[in-house]
Amino acid sequence: MAKSANRDEILFDTHDDGIDRRGFLKCMAWAGTGALCVMEGGVLQSFGLNDPARAAKVARGELSFVQISDSHMGFNKPANPDVIATLNAAVQKINALPVAPEFLLHTGDISHLSKPEEFDNVDKILQSASAKDVFFVPGEHDVLEDGGQQYRERYGKNAKGEGWYSFDKKGVHFIGLVNVINLKAGGLGNLGADQLAWLKDDTQHLSKSTPIIVFAHIPLWTIYPDWGWGTDDSAQALALLKRFGSVTVLNGHIHQTMQKVEGHVTFHTACSTAFPQPHPGQAPSPGPMKVPAEQLRGLLGITNVNFAKKHHPLAVTDSTLE
Amino acid sequence: MKRNHILSIAASALLMIMIMIAPVLKMAGSTQTSDTRGGTLEVKIDNFSFTPATITVKAGTQITWTNADDIPHTVVSDEGVFKSKVLDTDEKFTFTASKPGTYPYFCSIHPKMTGKVVVE
Q1: Do the domain assignments include residue A7?
Q2: Beta carbons of B71 and A288 less than 8 Å apart
Q3: Chain A to chain B Cβ contacts (< 8 Å)
Q4: Is B77 on the interface with A (CB under 8 A)?
Q5: Which CATH class is domain B32-119?
């Protein structure tokens, strides 16, 4: 879909929380192929990664970080019998970036079964990354049995509530949210009243020109509710961020890249480092997708985010592990 | 000759009707009521769903859920009547229905997965 020489621009809007068919198909065409996105004045422009000339023009911003997601340490089924090797490959990819990232964001499903040794293995592998700081949010696989107590002891000692927190880096306000705890029968991801109250408090003193980056495991936009790919009360969170001129939402959970821009908000989901999942509705269930071994690493990947304050662009680049 | 033609049309029409109602039958299948006269009943967890989604059993029946997915699931009663631990692939959970009533349940990891146990 993304032609090598032509700029491929998304300019679609929706009135509800879904995405239109045209935009949806466009998003799907990128899955696993890598894309480069630049946000300028609230409009997302995207370029195929097979256009190196354009990719090279993207500013080396003041802040560069990498998002990784869904490492599912402990998973050993045919869809990927060696998740250690693919997480190592992701770290190598990070270490080979032309601009070293300042830190990593891990958007959850660190482990597959919340076992201590699974978390230990991820921590050990990430120690070899060029970026030493890693900011986490939990996925549903990280809070099994104990409502996230172990997760918080490991990764959320200074976090509030069930593990939410915020921090500032070079003028950008980062907000890590938890939407995988206390899920209700028949529902989607859930933030809850306490977290929303905290979010209001956390952001109300910020100037509206402060760039905001929100990260959470389950998408904060409704991608495919039949598969639970959305968050019940995400609209309330987004309403609190409405006054800000630049909001970027980074999620995992769906093991494929998808993007949408709506008003001042750019949504982006990252690939898994462990196994791909099918496109929405194109399989009986969202379970792990088995692909020929030689294709696997083309469907896994990392996301590099580059922020340049001066020109107000935010570049989000996905690259596969190949 | 003409009769054959009419038969052929009738056969086509019947085929069309069967094709049209097939999805309806399939949908009905996913919420089919299974009746058992004591003993045990199996519920399969597969493709992020419970099959059958609704089961009707006599009091005293043992119900066993088996996870056939590559992803872990749980079996948790909405009202806290029963709650499995996390079931990895091929792991099982058993609950013996003793008190008559309707017990909706779900997977607490993937809450879109819901089912119902009706104890008579």
Answers
A1: no
A2: yes
A3: 57
A4: no
A5: mainly beta
| Chain B contact set for A144 (CB, 8 A) | 72, 86, 109
Task: Provide the domain limits for residue A106.
Answer: 21-68+86-320
> Residue A46 has what pLDDT?
42
ipTM of the complex as predicted: 0.80
Contacts of B72 in chain A (CB under 8 A): 112-113, 141, 144
Chain A hits for B105, CB-CB cut-off 8 Å, are: 185
The residues, any chain, with a CB within 8 Å of residue A272's CB and separated by 6 or more, are A69, A70, A71, A72, A109, A252, A255, A300
User: Which CATH number goes with the domain that contains A54?
Assistant: 3.60.21.10
* Residue B53 contacts A, CB cutoff 8 Å: no
pTM (2 d.p.):
0.81
Assigned domain for A267 exists: yes
The mean pLDDT values, 10 residues at a time, for chain B of 120 residues are 56 54 43 58 97 95 97 97 97 95 97 96
| Radius of gyration of chain B, Cα coordinates, nearest whole angstrom | 20
CA distance to partner chain A, nearest, from residue B8 (Å): 36
* Structural domains counted in chain A: 1
Whether residue A3 is contained in a domain is answered as no
